Amino acid sequence: MPPVKYQRGEMVMGRWPGSSLYYEVKVLGFDSKSESYTVIYKDGTELELMEQDIKSTAGFLSRSRSRSRSPGRRRSGSRSPSRTTRGSSRKSTALGAYFWLLFLPAWVLFMILQGDLEDPSLVNAPPPLPSLDSLWDYQSFGFVVLWIVFQALLYILPVGKLSEGMPLRTGERLKYRTNGFFALMVTALAVAIAVHEGVDLTYVYNNFLQLAVAAFLISVLLSCYCYGHSRNANSEQLALGGNSGNVAYDFFKGRELNPRIKNFDLKFFCEMRPGLIGWCLINFAMAVTEMKLHNLDSPSCSMILVNLFQLLYVLDGLWNEEAILTTMDLMHDGFGFMLAFGDLVWVPFTYTLQAFYLVNHPNPLSPPAAAAIVLLKLIGFYIFRKSNSEKNTFRKNPSDSKLSCMRTIPTATGKSLLTSGWWGVVRHPNYLGDLIMALSWSLPCGFSHILPWYYMIYFIILLVHRESRDMSECKRKYGSAWDEYCQTVPYRIIPWVY
Ligand SMILES: NC(=O)C1=CN([C@@H]2O[C@H](COP(=O)(O)OP(=O)(O)OC[C@H]3O[C@@H](n4cnc5c(N)ncnc54)[C@H](OP(=O)(O)O)[C@@H]3O)[C@@H](O)[C@H]2O)C=CC1
Ligand SMILES: CC(C)CCC[C@@H](C)[C@H]1CC=C2C3=C(CC[C@@]21C)[C@@]1(C)CC[C@H](O)C(C)(C)[C@@H]1CC3
């Protein structure tokens, strides 16, 4: 056996995988079987490196001093060592951010205006633009602020469990008040009382655009606040992806991983409360509007299905609120415009488009068609729930007795990867279940227009992109163990297809 060149605890220069950049790392150990060193970077990333990817610090520094930044502080897009490539990739990253900052709000505006048309066919696109002053309404803004404050009050109530998040780079675990289900129940009660007292929910349908504009303004203010807040954050509190140094890009992606006002976690709150619960309230308001507009005694079958399916999705998310703590957004993404806008505008005002569409575009369903759609929803829900629960239980306690018969692959980080159960079928079984459910949400709206299929199309793009992002992230984290997992489980989302 060759002698071990670098000793445990020694500071050396480690090559960042896939690049020719070297950073200062600490040697944690040597595995004689794979002949690789486990090293830890300054930002807490642990990787396995071969000897040829390591250089002694003394020899290296004399040659190049300037390359010793930790990867966490690297400019994004700087994987290539060449200056010109770095410059141009930073420029395109910034351009991309400007594009999304303009495109996303414009897209929501387009969808709402298009959905409002009597015939929302693409041949009638683009819809006429409303006047600027008709977009702003004090009352709508007031309602949105009230809604968020109400949800924030429910969130801080000392009711429900205090759950621990995944360990941060510092090893610290943040605490989260997981009382989302309670918040939904109290909100449902408050809405029931309001309707009983004569509050007219058709207001939501009639002022849908103004409410969306108000939520958009709040998301912009919130993103600005978070960007400012991140200026006081230390490097360990910053997300790995949102610190390129380019203002537009960092504003969009979010610099700080877990911005908090005392114990109030802005990312967790926004992702799980105002938008998600607002989605159910808006759907319900659409059902009420449909009844009023068409003089119905009850909402149409399609409207009931869309309402119940999406309500089940939100109920499930809030019931298993703790599981969000092991998702990519909570563990890795910064909180910036993308998530603030996504949570406060995108979710409540575009995920409700099917219900919004059905108000003026009824689609009668035969009982067998309705039964088939319900069955599809249940299959999707089963796969989604089982796979998310398997992963969450495993991440919380890998030796949980419920998982004793599961096969796993160990990784250098100490975490293992599940290779049986749903995670042995495809690499993202939770996405598969989610996509089947998305299909069941669009089917009740029929095939006359593409608008109610928008969610399905968007969701395929989102999840395919998320999957490849997660793949690179896992490859970075787990190295060869991830390759082994990919060989064992060759399909990404759909068995034998993709
Ligand atoms: N309705 C909507 O708009 C959206 C819904 N979603 C849903 O949210 C849920 C969460 O999604 P998301 O955060 O994207 O991804 P996942 O919940 O799938 O989390 C991915 C992480 O899981 C861990 N992991 C991957 N493979 C394995 C394995 N074999 N064994 C154990 N752990 C593994 C890795 O993290 P690590 O190893 O570090 O623990 C990986 O980074 C999904 O159900 C998705 O469908 C997502 C986006 C939008
Ligand atoms: C604006 C962009 C184009 C896209 C923004 C994406 C966000 C809207 C989504 C990113 C991950 C999400 C999750 C849920 C809602 C949508 C966002 C915020 C989720 C809370 C929905 C309910 C589920 O049960 C869940 C698993 C808890 C979801 C977690 C991810």
Please specify the SSE layout and strand pairing:
Elements: E1 11-15, E2 22-31, E3 36-41, E4 46-50, E5 54-56, H1 57-63, H2 83-116, H3 132-135, H4 138-156, E6 161-164, E7 175-178, H5 180-196, H6 202-206, H7 208-230, H8 247-253, E8 260-261, E9 264-265, H9 266-272, H10 274-293, H11 301-319, H12 328-331, H13 337-350, H14 353-360, H15 367-396, E10 408-410, E11 416-418, H16 429-442, H17 454-478, H18 480-488
Antiparallel strand pairs: 1-2, 1-5, 2-3, 3-4, 6-7, 8-9, 10-11
The chain binds NADPH dihydro-nicotinamide-adenine-dinucleotide phosphate (NDP) and the ligand CC(C)CCC[C@@H](C)[C@H]1CC=C2C3=C(CC[C@@]21C)[C@@]1(C)CC[C@H](O)C(C)(C)[C@@H]1CC3.
Ligand LPDX5YLU is lined by residues 104, 271, 276, 316-317, 324, 327, 329, 338, 341-343, 346-347.
Protein described:
Its main location: cytoplasm. Pathway: Steroid biosynthesis; cholesterol biosynthesis. The protein has 498 residues and is of the alpha+beta class. Helices cover 53% and strands 9% of the residues. The strands form 4 sheets. The chain has a 5-stranded antiparallel sheet with strand order 4-3-2-1-5. It has a two-stranded antiparallel sheet with strand order 6-7. Strands 8-9 form a two-stranded antiparallel sheet. Strand 2 (22-31) and strand 3 form a beta hairpin. Helix 7 (208-230) runs antiparallel to helix 13 and helix 10 runs parallel beside helix 13 (337-350). Mean pLDDT is 87; it is low at 62-86. The ligand CC(C)CCC[C@@H](C)[C@H]1CC=C2C3=C(CC[C@@]21C)[C@@]1(C)CC[C@H](O)C(C)(C)[C@@H]1CC3 binds next to helix 11 and helix 13.
